[in-house]
């Protein structure tokens, strides 16, 4: 059955992979992000049953306007994918409060705004799928990204609590928790390590793969496939879960 899926942070990386997966399965997709250019490029690639809408998940009015435009295009949002995120790095004692606040605003408050706006129509329809792209940082700590860990732990707590509230309403609420994913952001970080340290690409890559028993980056398509399953009828009994996609690092 074709559903209407709204994906935040949809212009690049994991969000774009999820949008491509769901669209390929016949769903109508609304692509939400702050920059129109990558959203429009992806929408053009996907073709029909796809719309690009600019929106800022940290701003409630912007979120409501984006959902209204999406609803005008394809009807009520039935699948919500919270994918927008930021991950500034710094030792905790040097972290600027502005960076801390921005991280919470995007990674936690953004999930709050989008989920709360989507929930009304899902309750009316007695059907809905909410998937938040969390991280293995929802499940354990990592040095130098305290704000990211705090926000992702909180997003997982919200997921688990809301799953209990909606368990009898035909709505499931889950989190997908990938480790390092092979995206442009990680590849740019590898290049930065190479530039600053003189390490080879293989040595720089090891920084991101050494914690994985499989010794590799996760593919964005693997995350997208897991999201697709959680959005399907076959996962109707799966709710309140944190699905780790990490090559076994949290085993």
Q: How many beta-strand elements? A: 7
Strand content: 15-25%
Q: Could you name the ranges where pLDDT drops below 50 across 5 or more consecutive residues? A: none
Question: Over the alpha carbons, how many angstroms does the gyration radius reach?
Answer: 18 Å
Write the layout of secondary structure elements.
Blueprint: E1 4-8, H1 13-24, E2 28-33, H2 36-46, E3 50-54, H3 60-74, E4 79-82, H4 97-125, E5 128-133, H5 146-165, E6 171-178, H6 184-197, H7 201-209, H8 220-230, E7 242-245
Parallel strand pairs: 1-2, 1-4, 2-3, 4-5, 5-6, 6-7
Describe this structure in words.
With 251 residues, the protein is of the alpha/beta class. It is 48% helix and 15% strand. It is built from eight helices and seven strands. The chain has helices at 13-24, 36-46, 60-74, 97-125, 146-165, 184-197, 201-209, 220-230; strands spanning 4-8, 28-33, 50-54, 79-82, 128-133, 171-178, 242-245. It has a seven-stranded parallel β-sheet with strand order 3-2-1-4-5-6-7, sandwiched between helices. β5, α5 and β6 (171-178) form a beta-alpha-beta unit. α1 crosses α8 and α4 packs parallel to α5. 46% of the residues are buried. The mean pLDDT is 95.
């Amino acid at each position: 059955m074709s559903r209407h899926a709204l994906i935040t942070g949809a212009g690049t990386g994991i969000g774009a992979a999820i949008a491509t997966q769901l669209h390929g399965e016949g769903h109508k997709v609304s692509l939400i992000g702050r920059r129109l250019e990558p959203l429009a490029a992806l929408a053009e690639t996907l073709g029909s049953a796809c719309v690009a809408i600019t929106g800022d998940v940290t701003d409630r009015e912007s979120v409501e306007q984006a959902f209204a435009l999406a609803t005008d295009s394809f009807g009520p949002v039935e699948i919500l994918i919270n994918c927008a995120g930021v991950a500034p790095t710094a030792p905790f004692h040097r972290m600027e409060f502005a960076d801390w606040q921005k991280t919470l605003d995007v990674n936690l408050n953004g999930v709050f705004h989008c989920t709360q706006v989507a929930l009304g129509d899902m309750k009316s329809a007695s059907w809905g799928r909410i998937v938040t792209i969390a991280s293995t940082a929802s499940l354990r700590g990592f040095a130098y990204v305290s704000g990211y860990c705090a926000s992702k732990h909180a997003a997982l707590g919200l997921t688990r609590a809301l799953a209990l509230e909606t368990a009898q309403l035909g709505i499931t609420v889950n989190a997908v928790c990938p480790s390092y994913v092979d995206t442009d952001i990680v590849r740019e970080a590898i290049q930065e390590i190479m530039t600053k340290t003189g390490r080879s690409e293989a040595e720089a890559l090891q920084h991101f793969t050494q914690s994985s028993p499989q010794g590799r980056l996760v593919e964005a398509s693997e995350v997208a496939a897991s999201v697709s399953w959680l959005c399907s009828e076959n996962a109707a009994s799966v709710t309140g879960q944190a699905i780790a996609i990490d090559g076994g690092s949290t085993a």
